[in-house]
Write a structure and sequence with these properties.
With about 260 residues, this protein is of the alpha+beta class. It is built from 6 helices and 11 strands. The protein has helices at about 30-40, 75-85, 125-130, 140-150, 200-210, 220-225, and strands spanning about 5-10, 50, 60-70, 90-95, 110-115, 130-135, 150-155, 170-185, 185-195, 240-250, 255. Strands 1, 2, 3, 4, 5, 6, 7, 8, 9, 10 and 11 form an 11-stranded mixed sheet that branches.
Length: about 260
């Protein structure tokens, strides 16, 4: 049967999900999406994500690759999925791709953001679901200086869960953008890289927040970027304030947008 290769871009609220990857007896984004696809297509359809977001992490740009029977145009598939998916998942867009497209391995870069609230209003239930209520002043100069260390190509083994990469992997990532930006009620950390290790953004944020609140010196950033263990890295920041914003692919892999 002829198949169509489609990239879906998902928005989801991660609060009620046990992460992206399908797990037995757990509600996951991949599981919910594959169930919706099977309901529509009447056969099992594998949904391959650009990466695995952890439990509680949100997305407004998770890219997913699926192969469906050719009768499903991208427009028809997007409309049908949004009609049957639960309210905490939405297909923002769909694009027809060349057959060699792979949601994970074809990606050129990924972009994340992490939201920190520094005012009293950050404790509101209307904000606390999507940002970290830090509750104390932050030194913006120290935040900016710490983020400046992150840009470029480094070994991020100290900012990753042990065993996050295969044996022999050097844990090197090329970070093209790492900036703290002011926003109403707090700050947001924006980061883009060719790859991310497990918990990498959360470890970075946790360490930078400790630096900006005088719990550890700025010199720790350069030292940790040369370390081969996470034993001296700050605890990872909470998952609920992290968003996967976008994934970038080579333009030549696209056939049609919807």
């Amino acid at each position: 049967m002829a198949e169509r290769t489609v990239q879906l871009v998902l928005h989801y609220d991660g609060a009620e999900f046990s992460g992206w990857q399908r797990q037995p007896d757990q509600r996951t984004v991949q599981g919910v999406l594959e169930e919706a696809l099977e309901r529509l297509v009447c056969e099992r359809v594998a949904a391959t994500g650009s990466g695995r977001t952890d439990a509680g992490v949100h997305a407004r740009g998770q890219a997913v690759g699926v192969r469906v029977p050719e009768r499903w145009t991208v427009q028809k598939l997007r409309r049908a999925l949004n009609a049957v998916l639960p309210s905490d998942v939405w297909v923002a867009s769909a694009a027809e791709m060349k057959h060699e497209f792979h949601a994970r391995y074809s990606a050129l870069s990924r972009r994340y953001s992490y939201y920190v609230g520094t005012d009293d209003g950050a404790h509101s239930p209307f904000r606390g679901r999507y940002e970290l209520a830090f509750g104390q002043p932050l030194d913006r100069g120290a935040l900016d200086a710490a983020a400046a260390h992150v840009e470029g190509e480094h070994c991020f083994q100290a900012f990753a869960v042990l065993g996050t990469a295969p044996p022999g992997d050097e844990h090197r990532c090329h970070v093209t953008h790492a900036r703290w930006q002011p926003r109403s009620g707090g700050v947001v950390f924006e980061i883009a890289a060719n790859r991310f290790l497990h918990h990498m953004v959360r470890f970075l944020v946790g360490t930078m927040l400790d630096i900006a609140s005088s719990r550890r010196p700025l010199t720790d950033m350069s030292r940790l970027l040369n370390a081969n263990t996470n034993e001296d890295t700050s605890a990872p920041a909470a998952a609920h304030a992290l968003f996967l914003d976008s994934v970038t692919y080579p333009r030549e892999l696209y056939l049609e947008d919807a």
